[in-house]
Specification:
6 strands; 6-stranded parallel β-sheet; Rossmann fold; alpha/beta; 18% strand; globular
């Protein structure tokens, strides 16, 4: 029996790097519906209600605001979309902050080809996903007091 959803989940992509947006859209369009590929946080906040994505994939660095701020505002506004962060930030403080905000997934850009579709499928099934990180990232983050 096929456990995949009958309809491909709708994804809203947000990254301030245009090349990354194109790469993500090309990579994901095969198995998912891309409803938008947006360059900043304001465009996400202005579009999410109208587009009704199942999942919002956010970079943490969006230029005009952080992905964390976008996620907080989406949650405050009652957005039902699941949130997956896709970012270069592999520090445990960032991972923990993302899940504290209510994210369902956290994928390192260094592992995008290995982890993103896996994360989407797990999140669509109601689970949570985080990219594997070197063990030292989770031991102690006290060496870095620059919290997100």
């Amino acid at each position: 029996m096929n456990t995949k959803l009958a309809v491909a989940p709708a994804l809203l992509l947000a990254d301030d790097n245009p090349t990354m947006l194109i790469t993500l859209a090309e990579m994901l369009q095969v198995g998912y519906r891309i409803v938008a590929a947006l360059p900043n946080g304001a465009s996400v906040l202005n579009s999410v209600t109208m587009l009704s994505p199942d999942i919002v994939i956010l970079d943490i660095s969006l230029g005009d605001m952080t992905g964390f701020e976008v996620a907080r505002r989406l949650k405050r506004e009652g957005c039902r979309a699941k949130i997956i962060f896709l970012t270069v930030h592999e520090d445990a403080d960032f991972v923990n902050a993302a899940f504290d905000i209510g994210a369902s997934g956290y994928v390192f850009k260094s592992r995008v080809t290995e982890d993103l579709t896996k994360a989407i499928d797990i999140v669509c099934s109601g689970g949570q996903f985080a990219s594997n990180a070197p063990q030292q990232l989770y031991k102690s983050a006290d060496h870095n007091r620059d919290h997100p």
